[in-house]
Structures are given as C-alpha cells and as structure tokens.
Amino acid sequence: MNNSLLVVLVANGIGFGTPLLYASLGELLAERSGVLNLGVEGMMLIGAVTGFWTVERFHASTGAALAAAVGVAALAGAATSLIHAFLVITLRASQIVSGLALTIFAGAAGLSSYFGNDFNLGENPARHTFHTVFPASWQRWPIVGPIVFGHNVLVYVSWALVVLVSLYLTRTRLGLNLRAVGDAPAAADAMGINVAAYRYAHVLVGGALAGVAGATFTLAITPQWVDGITGGAGWIAIALVIFAFWRPELCLVGAYFFGALQDLAPELQARGIHLGPTALWTNTLPYLMTIVVLVLVSASSTRRWLGAPAALGTPYVREER
Amino acid sequence: MRGITKQFPGVVANDGVDFEAAPGEVHALLGENGAGKSTLSNILTGLYRPDAGEISLHGERVEFHSPRDALDAGVSMVHQHFRLVERFSVAENVILGDHRREGRAFRLRRRATERRVGELGERYRVAVDPRANVWQLSVGEQQRVEILKALYLDARILILDEPTAVLTPQEAEVLFGTLRELAADGRTIVFISHKLHEVKAVSDRVTVLRAGRTVATVDAAESTPRSLAELMVGRGLGEGVQAEPREPGEAVLALEDVWADGDRGGAAVRGVSLQVRAGEIVAMAGVAGNGQRELAETIAGIRPATKGTVHVAGKTPRSGDPRAAITAGVAYVPEDRLGTGLAPSVSIASNLALKSYRKPPASSGPLLRLGRIREHAVELIKRYRIAAPGPQAPVRLLSGGNLQKVVLAREFSGGPKVLVAASPTRGLDVGAIESVHTYLHEAAANGVGVLLLSEDLDEILTLADRIAVVYEGRIVGETPRAQANVEEIGLQMAGGEDPRRN
Amino acid sequence: MVAVPAASLVFAFFASGLVLLATGHNALSSYRRLFDAAFLNHGALGDTLVSATPLAFTGLAAAAAFRMRLFNIGGEGQLYIGAITAAAAGLYFGGSGGPSAFAIAAMVAAGCAGGAAWALIPGILRAFFRTNEIIVSLMLNYVAGYLLTYLIFNSQSYFRQTTGFNASVFPTSKELPSSAVWPAATVHVHGGVALPLGAGLAVLAAVLLWVLYARTRFGFEATVLGDSPRAARYAGMRTRRKIVAVMAISGAIAGLGGASQDGDFRHTLDADPNGLQRQFYGYSGIVVAALARYNPLAVLLVAFLIGGLQNAGNSLQGPDFPAGLVGVMQGIILFSALGGELLVRYRVRVRRRDRAGAAPAPEAT
C-alpha cells in the first residue's frame, strides 16, 4: 500500500515541494512588507551552489558540514537579496526590473554558473547529503510511514517554519506592524514604524530562505551541482505566494501540490501508464499547471487581489525630512 | 515653537514662524492653502526637520527625529487624509506601532485593547466598534478612529488638520464638543483650518499664518470672520465671484433612476434621477463616500450603470463606455487630478490633447500631428495662464492649482455640453479657487450644464443655482439656492439623523 | 540622456572587475581578451553581428512591451516558437537554387506569426483575466524550450531528418533547403564583414517601432496607458485591445528573431538544448532594452555592444575563462542602469520643488 500511486505522490510531493515551500515562505515575507522580489530563481541558485561548495570544502563531520552548508547558503541568498533591497528600498527603483536583473545576474549563465565552473563543482556528487531522520522501520508504517516519517530534517524544519511564520503574522506586534507596512506604509510611518527597516529585514530573510531552498536541491534532492539545477522553481514559488493568498499554511499546500505534479509524469511512466508524448508532458506539466492555477486565481474575483498587500510593488516615499 | 524655518527647494514654507499654545486651550491655526500650516504641523509631529528654530514642550527644548519621537512626547495628529490601514480593525489600527506605553510587548492582547478603545470612545463621545474593519466605516467614524489613536497614547497635544472637511455641520458640532472636553482635561488642541466660522466657534485663540509667516495671534472672542479673513489674505476682500443671472435652457443631462455598483460590490448609486439644464449649475452636496464619485464616473462612462439611463443632450451614450460619453459631450473633471485626470509623466501638451487626439487637427489618419498639438497647447497655456516650464514638460512638475487649470483647459476646450466637476477646488489656494469658480461660471454662461460635486457647503452656496443632497446613493433633497437652508441641508447630508442627539 | 547608460557601463565593468579579482582572475587581461574577441580579432566584427542580431530582435521586443509597463519576459520562448514556425515555412516552401524571395518572405511571416501567437497567450490572459503576464510568459519560455527539444529529440516530427548516416546515429533536424537560406551583404570594412539579412530586418523593425510609438495615435495611447491606466480609461482608450496588440507586436518581433536564427545563421532548426537554448537571447534582450531605456533606435546600438560581450563570452569559454561572466556583467550593467535611472529622477524631483508655488502636500509618488 505504501507503493500505491497516491501515497508515493504525496510523499515525493513533500520532498520535491520543500524547496518551493522555503522559497515561497521567504517571498511571502518580502511581499508582505510590500516588496516584490522576482529574483528568487537567482537567489536559489546562489544558495544551491554555495551550499554545495561548502559541503565540498568544509572538512568536518556530516552534521557539521551540512549545517554549515545551509548556513552559508542562507547568508549567500541574503547577501544577493541585499542588492535588490538597496536598489528598490533606498533608491526606489522599479521592483520588477531589479528582480529580473537579479535573476540574470545570479542565475543560470550568471554568478551561480560562474562559481560552479570556477570551482569545478559539477564533477562529483555531494560529499555529504541529507538523509532521512526517522528509523527505517517507522517509514514502513502504512501511509503515515513514508508521508510523515520519510523525510530529511530540512522538511521537518520547514513545517516548523510554516507554524512560526503564521504565528508571527497573526499574533505578534511585529507581525501586525509588518502587515501595516505592506498595506499602508503611510499609516505605519505616521505611527512611528520604520518602514525601510522592516522592508530590508524581510527582503533579507526572504533571500536567506531562498538560499536554503536552493541548497535543498544540491544537498538533498539531487545531491549534485548542475548549472541551472532549480529549473524554474523560483518562479513557481512566486506564483505560489499569489495562489496561497499570502498565507503560510496555503503555501504549504500549494508547494506540495506542485511538488507532486513534478513527480506525476515519471511515476506514471514507471507504472507503464502512457499519456501520449510522455517526455513533453513530463517536463512541461508543472509550468502549464502554474499558468492554469494562476488564471483561475486571478479570474475568480478581484477579491483575490484584495488579499495582496496593498502597497506591493510601490516604493514608499516619505516627503523630505 | 520659535523661529521655525523650513525650506524646500524654491519654496520657503515656514519663515521664522512663532507659535505657542497653552494646556487646556483650543488654539486654531488659520491660513489659506499654501500658507504653511501643514508644514508647521508636520514639523511638530516629527515628519519634517526644521532648518532653523526650536521647539519646546512644557518649557523644555525638544528635538524630533522621527514621528516616533513626537508620539512618545505626547504629540499626536489627526491628518486630513487619514493614515489608517483599511484592512485592519479599529483596535488593530489603534495599537499599531512600537510605543513606549506598550513597552515592546511581543504578543498582541486583543481583548484588553478592545476594552480600552471602548472606554475611551464612551468617555469622549467618539465611540466606534473596536472590532469593525476600517474600510466598513463611514468617513466620520474613521476620523474617530484617528482620534482614538491619539487618546490611546494619552496625547497631551492633539493637532487636527482640517477635520471638518469630511463632516456634516452637525457632526462638526459633535466634534467640537469632543475637543472642548479634551481641552478641559488639560490637553492642548491645535485646530488647523481655513474655515472662519468654525475657527471662531471652537477656538480660544487664533494664530494666522500667511505666506509662511506668522501674521497675528488673536483672541477668537474678539475677532469677526471678516477680520480673520483679512488677516489671512492680507488685503481687503472683494465680494467673491459674482455671477450674472442666467436663463437656463433645455435639459442637457438627464439621469433616470440610475443605479451603479461600488468598488467593493453592492450598489453605491441607488436610483438617482436628476436633471441639469443648459446654463445651470447644479450642486450635489454630501459627505464623501455617499456615492458621488461613483455617480460622476457613471455619467462619464467610466463606470457602467446597472440600471437606469443617462441622457446627454437628447442622446443616450452607451453605458460604461468613456469614449461614448466624451463623444456625446460629457466633460469630467475628476477629484483625483494626477491619478485619473492626467498622465503624470506625459507632457503637458499630450495631456491637453488627451481627449482630442483622435480627431483632426490633432491627428490625420493614424498619424499624430505633433506640431498642431504643440501649438494648441501653447495657446491653452497662455489663455488659462498656466505656470509651466513649457508644453513638453511632464505634467507632474506642476503645482496643484496649475494641474487643475490643465484639466479645466482641456475639458472646456472640447466644447462640452455637460461638465461634471468633482471637488474641483480641493487643496487649492484662494487665488486658484477664484479662478476655478470663474471658469465654472463662464462655462455655465456659455450654455454648458454644470454638475458640481463638492463637500464644501460654502462653495456650493456661492456657486449653485440648485442644490441636491446625496446620502447613501440617493438624492434626499433638492432645493433652489434661494430657498436653501444650511441647517436642513446638513441634516439631509447626515441622513436625517441629528448626531447631536446622542 | 546618454550619460546614465554610459556611466552604468563604466561602473559595471569596474564592478565585474572586482568580481574577477576576488576570484583570482586577472581582470585586465580578461577584459583585454574580451574586447579583442568582441571587436578586434579577425572575423570578430562579423561574429559580433551574429550575436547582436538576435539581441536586437529580443531587445526591440522587450522595449515594445516594457514601454507600456507590460513585462513580457517571454521573449525567449517567443523566439523559439518563431524559429519553429519559420523553419516549417522554410522547409515547406524552400527548394534548390539561390535565395528565393518567396520562401524567405514566408519564413519572415511565419516567424512573426508564431512569436505573436505565443505572446498572445499571456497577452489575452492579462487583458481579459487580469493574470500576471510576467509569470505566464516566463512559464511559457520553459514550455517552448521543451517543445523545441521534443520536436527533434523525442519525436518523428516534420522537422526531423530521417535519412542519412548522421541521422541514424543522433537526432538531427533537417537542413533548410538552399532557397530558404537568407542572404547576407558584404560590407568592405576590416577585411570584409557579412551583414546578415536579419540585421537589416532588425533595423527596419526598430525604425517602424519608433515611428509607431512616437508619431501615431497607437503610440500615444500606449504611452498614456503605460503611464496611467486610469487616465487612459478616463480618456476613453480601449485598454484591453491595446494590451493584446502590444503583446502581439512584441512577440512578433521576437519570433522574427527566431526566424533569423534559422535563416541567417543556423540554416536549420536548432533544437539542441546546448545550442540556441543556452544563448538566453530573450533574457539578454531585456537587459538591452533596459539599458537603451526602451528607445527602439538605442536598442540597436546597445544590442551591438552587448552582442560583442556575448560573442566574446562564447568564443572564449573554456576552463581558463570564467563562464557565467557574461551573465554577471549583464546583471551588473542592469543594476547600474537602474541605479543611474534614479539619479535622473531625483534631479527631476528637485526641479519640481522649484516650480511648485504652494507647500508640497503629501502626495503618493
């Protein structure tokens, strides 16, 4: 029963969806502060390559090396997002163009590729990788086994993160302030809240999470560095935030849904079920589904966009001091 | 505040201003638009830093580096454009921010806050439901939330910027009662306004600003509206804009049971029937948010009518089609000049051609005739005396009054049959206001039917031939100017309920 | 006007130099080699034109859309689809002999049509369903890429070569018949440089686009719509139709770039994942457009410069020359252009205060 299509899809969906979850949570926080960061794909790749590099070069026990790698990936992601934050918050540049520039700069055929090539990272698989946490016997339990106990620590941390972010937004004063910054920065400013500080902080955290998301690829999913390994996941994460009404719980649902989608075609193929030009389907399904979901979400009602932070995408200018 | 000077490039907003107010007093800050009142209050609330001068509170020198400093010092302001988060509840808006009162409390204590908000509301007659979402509240109620924000922080100095602009006369009286109570508590109330009767009604002392300088500080009791006006403007006042009597002609605008939806679903305009005749100025009085904007948009074709019809000069342009309305002869001066009526980064010349570019002489076939457009712009700039760097400059460089002139120039030059003007004089100084009033009279004299939407009763009483009152999307009263009664109009604007009775 | 982009370039070179130094490369010699490979070496100019031509197309495509605040990121995919449809036309209408005007015209038309159709997907979704065109157009890039690869590598499609020794070993796509190969003019400078037909078409497209935006009613409406959708609606402009039209134009130009790839340079449908799809012409086009401040004529110049950069990157790529440098530099160029843009705007804000007679009121910028 643990080999049934549904169980496998859900279990693998969780695994594949974890980078999407990290990245979308990060983007959610940034967008809640009113800043759109389209550079997620680039930041993920930076995180992926720096995490991989750390694991190769940092000679320590598996646990320590992996922890360091994740830390480095987070830092690298945050550092990359700092460029965007500076351009967009302090210089008030167009958030869209800046985000695109970030992806070009850091993405495939950009800085991440540069590092990968320069340090010859593509040659070997990762020296240390994340393994499942729970004993194998637990993983054999019907249904719950693979779905709940079959994952590595990154997955479990992401679950905790969803809870944390959700509590942060709804129950804390900082979270209230953040929501005000994203919805009505003028009101927040008049109440003494430092709009720029909140925006910087959350964009950087978003970058850090994107970096971790990227590291998930090179340290857990396909423990190897390949140029452009994320394959557009960053963009799907951005779409996810919209799909999730800017709410963390729905990010989790959406991330695992898309994760499962990515696994759908290969699983069907493995079971001998053919859907026509399988190769084409296999590769394009996640992207097509993103479009479909996005259309449904946007067309349903204006109310959906009322879920967006009202000041998203607009720079905040307070008249001169 | 002593010797406050604040300069922006090209403009000295405050030039050595002295201002002082005592505890327990309601002190009015009077001046026309552009005199420097907003700048001064922004300095006092920490939004701006003065170039020179100092501020002392209770005898001690203070310096504000940010709004938070001012809030912590007990200075709060109720802005003219509310600084509220519409999505939040009243309670959430009130406790927003990091305040020394709350410490840096991490968790939100919802119930305690709601209780306190309720208490304060009761005490000072500014009650609102703490759990309601702000976007659901009326404008008057939203203002109360702003006041509650200040009270929650126990503000000792409360500044209100043009608070009655959005209130009916009766609501204004309730507000004055609240202010007097707060003053009786020992707080200092600074009341910024350009409305002379109110200033006299509620304040103890009045400081008049003109062109960035303090002109005088007088006792309210010893002044008359006329003496205050002369201090404010600095010259003997004329009688205002006089119009020649006009004979209205045929109906150029006829609304038949028009219904239209608002932005959040639900009907904003509910069965409005009205006629405007050629050469007539009909004013619609009403507090903001009662469907005026939606009605104006429906007439201009920007918003589709869900029921009923709009007739313009005998024709019926297709509903929800701005181009049809324009072709039928509807000119619309929207309230939001720079957001709707003009394209900010586009040149003045192009903005002036915004409605005429489709036809000759502005274009021939698919091609634009840029030379002609430019010439036309130069002509209009001269005729309307628009102060501009040149016709190719982006329109957002202009000041408020000049922006409005651009819009008016464009709308008039199209030879319209109907002119809908929404709050056309908002935020303008006296000179600009006079110009606008003159143009409106001119339009009417030329046979245009003018529909004026305004919150300013004084303006309506000056301009209108007929006054209709709108409340909750319906017309609740219609009177010719000669028989208009301010008290009654005020009651109608509030839906017939006298808020003083609470 | 020119100062900002020029300064951005200088700054970008400087900043990229720092990156090079930080990773242990000799910045100056890398730059020297870059410049030589781009312009000075024998045949470099011609190669640069080869890189610049597609960039001109994708740059124009991006400029056409971005000017109206339509963020068409799908130039990459629209180029691929244009390549596919143009190849189909070329294979179908082409024959033996010298370049045939008819076959070439068919390819041009097909390329434009394919690109336009692909761009209409995000266009229509945006116009009528308010769907975010950035994500839709971007997703379609990936779809187009996979489709392109599929046509040769995973299927027995029309495009696939089925006979011949090579074809039985490795999936190949058919060669375009000789009458569908686009001609090139020879310019006698620097030892003879080939000017591809595509380059000429790009210049023509740039001029037409410039006229469209600067001198026609269509362009006027697009400018106003890009600046303020509310003002556009207020003035009675047909917003949705405009969005669809501009996206179609943008896609058509990108598709033409794809046709040029087939006809001018590759003479076949290049479906190799390491070939056309590794050039990222579409994304580079966005950089070109931004640097050119969305002015079609400036796009041509910038495309040439960036083409030089791309050419150099390609020809120098190897273990001792940092790969990914091109992307890094382009990113930095774009960042500097963005940063520089603000200086211009800041100056404008200061001037505004001079003009304003009244005290500045709180106004959303």
Structure description:
The complex is a heterotrimer of chains A (321), B (502) and C (365). In chain A, helix 2 (40-57) runs parallel beside helix 4 (95-106), helix 2 (40-57) runs parallel beside helix 5 and helix 8 crosses helix 9 (173-183). Chain A contains 15 helices and no strands. Helix content of chain A is 72%, strand content 0%. Chain A has helices at residues 5-32, 40-57, 62-90, 95-106, 111-118, 136-139, 144-149, 153-171, 173-183, 185-190, 195-221, 233-243, 248-270, 278-300, 302-306. Chain A has 321 residues and is an all-alpha fold. With 502 residues, chain B is α/β, with parallel strands linked by helices. Chain B has three domains: 2-233, Rossmann fold, CATH 3.40.50; 240-329 and 416-502, 3-Layer(aba) Sandwich (Rossmann fold); 345-414, no CATH class. Chain B has helices spanning 37-44, 67-72, 90-94, 110-123, 139-152, 169-184, 196-202, 225-233, 292-299, 322-328, 337-341, 348-352, 370-383, 400-413, 430-445, 457-463, 486-493, and strands spanning 2-8, 11-17, 26-30, 52-57, 60-62, 75-78, 157-161, 188-193, 205-210, 213-219, 251-261, 267-277, 281-285, 305-312, 330-333, 363-364, 367-368, 418-422, 449-454, 466-471, 474-480. In chain B, the strands form five sheets. A six-stranded mixed beta sheet of chain B has the order 6-7-8-3-9-10, with helices on both faces. Chain B has a six-stranded mixed beta sheet with strand order 15-18-19-13-20-21, sandwiched between helices. In chain B, helix 4 (110-123) packs across helix 5 (139-152) and helix 14 (400-413) packs parallel to helix 15 (430-445). The model of chain B has no long low-confidence stretch (mean pLDDT 84). In chain C, helix 2 crosses helix 13 (296-316) and helix 4 (75-93) packs across helix 11. The longest helix of chain C has 31 residues, at 325-355. Chain C has one domain: Orthogonal Bundle (ABC transporter involved in vitamin B12 uptake, BtuC), CATH 1.10.3470. Chain C is globular and about 65 Å long. In chain C, a hairpin with a 5-residue loop joins strand 1 and strand 2. A two-stranded antiparallel sheet of chain C has the order 1-2. Classes of the chains: A mainly alpha (321), B alpha/beta (502), C mainly alpha (365). Chains in contact: A-B, A-C, B-C.
